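Input C-alpha cells:
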C-alpha cells in the first residue's frame, strides 16, 4: 500500500514502470517510512510504531539516494518525500554514485512510455515558465547593455557556494543507451549547483564543491561543447529558489524530450533569452556548423539571389537566443542581438 501512496503523490497512480523505480530505491519498510512523511524522525517513529534508530537509518539512506529531503541538510531531523517527478528524477540520477545500467534503464523505460509526455503536458499548463535560456557568455560578452542576470559568469560570481554533479538526464543516456552526442558526462560533469542546491549535493555526497575559477572554466568547456545554459526564470541572481544551472542538450534533456513527446513547442516549457541570432550573409560560407549546433532547429540553408552558395538563415520564431551557434561559428558570421526589453525577464 505504501508504494501506491507514493505513486499517487507523484501523479502516476497506475504506473507499473514508476513503481519498479520505487521498488529499486526502497524496500517495503522504507516505502512505509517515506509514505509517512512529511515529519520528523520522532513523529514518523510514533506514527508507525517503529524504533527511532531504525527510522533515522532508513531516512538517512533515502536522503543519500535522493528520495527524501531534509529541511536542514546538516541537522537532518525533519524530512519530506520528493515534491514531484522532476525532483525525484533529478535527485536520484544526478549523483556520482549512480552507475547501475539497470536503474538507468528503469528510468528510461518509464520516461519514454509515461513520464515525458505527461511532464510536458503538465509543464505547459503551469501558466509560468520556471526556466529561461541564458545566452552563451562568448556570444554576448562584447555586446552593449548586457544585464548581469543574463550573463552566466556574473550569475556564478554572485553565488556564495558552487558545486557540480553529473547531469541526471545524461546519466540515463550514458548508462542505458548510446550516450550524448554533444558531450561526455563521464569525462566532465555539467550540472552546476548553486546556493542551497550546492549545500544539498555536498552534504549527500552526490557531487563535489568547486571554486568560482573552476566553475568559470567549466562554462568555457560547456560552451565549446555546444550546450544550452538555463537558469531559474527570474532576474534574482541569488534566491532560495535559484539552485541550479542546467546545461542542456536536445538529445538528453528532460525538457526537450518532454516537449517532443507531448508534441508541444519548447516555448510552452522554457522561456527564450532576450536575444536572437542573425547571419551576416557576406561572411557565411554555408559550412552548416550552426545548423548542427542548434538545439531548436532554428537555422536553415537558403540560396541568396545571384549566389552560387547556400547560406545560413535564422528562423526568428524558433530561435531561443542561446548563442550556441555564435560560439561555434569560426567565420564570425552569426551574432546575437537584443530583441526584447530588460523587463522581459521576470523579477
Amino acid at each position: 500500500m505504501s508504494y501506491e501512496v507514493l505513486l499517487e503523490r507523484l501523479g502516476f497512480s497506475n504506473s507499473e514502470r514508476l513503481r519498479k523505480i520505487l521498488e529499486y530505491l526502497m524496500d517495503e519498510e522504507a516505502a512505509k517510512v517515506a509514505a509517512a512523511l512529511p515529519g520528523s524522525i520522532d513523529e514518523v517513529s510514533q506514527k508507525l510504531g517503529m524504533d527511532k534508530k531504525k527510522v533515522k537509518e532508513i531516512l538517512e539512506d533515502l536522503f543519500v539516494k535522493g528520495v527524501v529531503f531534509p529541511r536542514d541538510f546538516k541537522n537532518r531531523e525533519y524530512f519530506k518525500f520528493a515534491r514531484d517527478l522532476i525532483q525525484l528524477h533529478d535527485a536520484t540520477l544526478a549523483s556520482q554514485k549512480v552507475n547501475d545500467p539497470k536503474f538507468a534503464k528503469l528510468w528510461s523505460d518509464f520516461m519514454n512510455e509515461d513520464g515525458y509526455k505527461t511532464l510536458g503536458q503538465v509543464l505547459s499548463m503551469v501558466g509560468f515558465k520556471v526556466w529561461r535560456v541564458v545566452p552563451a557568455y562568448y556570444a554576448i560578452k562584447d555586446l552593449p547593455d548586457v544585464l548581469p542576470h543574463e550573463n552566466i559568469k556574473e550569475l556564478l560570481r554572485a553565488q556564495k557556494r558552487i558545486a557540480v554533479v553529473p547531469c541526471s538526464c545524461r546519466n540515463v543516456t550514458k548508462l542505458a543507451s548510446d550516450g550524448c552526442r554533444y558531450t561526455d558526462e563521464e569525462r566532465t560533469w555539467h550540472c552546476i549547483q548553486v546556493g542551497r542546491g550546492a549545500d544539498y549535493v555536498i552534504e549527500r555526497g552526490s557531487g563535489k564543491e568547486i571554486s568560482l575559477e573552476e566553475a568559470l572554466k567549466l562554462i568555457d568547456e560547456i560552451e565549446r561543447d555546444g550546450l544550452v545554459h538555463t537558469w531559474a526564470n527570474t532576474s534574482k541572481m541569488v534566491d532560495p529558489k535559484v539552485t541550479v544551472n542546467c546545461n542542456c542538450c536536445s538529445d538528453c534533456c528532460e525538457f526537450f524530450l518532454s516537449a517532443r513527446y507531448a508534441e508541444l513547442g519548447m516555448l510552452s516549457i522554457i522561456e527564450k533569452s532576450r536575444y536572437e541570432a542573425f547571419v551576416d550573409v557576406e561572411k557565411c560560407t554555408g559550412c552548416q556548423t550552426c545548423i548542427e549546433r542548434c538545439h531548436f532547429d532554428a537555422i536553415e540553408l537558403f540560396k541568396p539571389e545571384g549566389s552560387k552558395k547556400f547560406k545560413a538563415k535564422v528562423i526568428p520564431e524558433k530561435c531561443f537566443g542561446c548563442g550556441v551557434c555564435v560560439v561555434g561559428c569560426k567565420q564570425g558570421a552569426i551574432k546575437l542581438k537584443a530583441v526584447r526589453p530588460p523587463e522581459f525577464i521576470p523579477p
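The longest helix spans residues 101-124. Residues 275-344 form a domain with the Alpha-Beta Plaits fold (CATH 3.30.70.20).
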